[in-house]
Amino acid sequence: MARISPASVGPEPLTAGEIARHLRRGKRSGSGFTACCPAHDDRNPTLSLHERDGKILAHCHAGCSQNEVIGALRKRGLWPESESARPWLDPREARQARWFAQALEDLLELALEELPAWSEERYEPTQALMELRRARKKGWLAVFYRDWRRREPRLAAGLVEAGRRSQRRIWARLAGFLEDL
Predict the structure, then answer these.
(1) What predicted TM-score, i.e. pTM, was given to this entire model?
(2) Domain contains 41
């Protein structure tokens, strides 16, 4: 089983459960988690994820090698590049992730303002907003953004554009304010 020390991953490492949640059919199983292995075309969960002694253990029961599993997790941003570094995003993609997150947060807050406090429709926007804020707090915005971009590419692209335009308007207002001083 592959092991990685959470201390070497970055600000707040992903737990085995968070990794499983970002993979297809990820769920709790006994003392750990199972999910479809990202290293091969998996229809049934064959990847086991466990946490022991502060390390994440990953094992594919279909026979994928450790290098294949870890490589596939790295491509998804779910495993660090090395023990000493974690280059998640290039600068362009980092900007896109910030724009995406800001636009999504604005959209979710607007939806929650419009929905009555007793409405059951508030559940999904509230959950998405909590997940976004948790991703920001733990330093996992890249994983959150990539997951959305994979699941909903058109929506993610639209939110990136909305965030970019919003930032331009803010900078224009700030420049106008500073000129008036």
Answers:
(1) 0.49
(2) yes
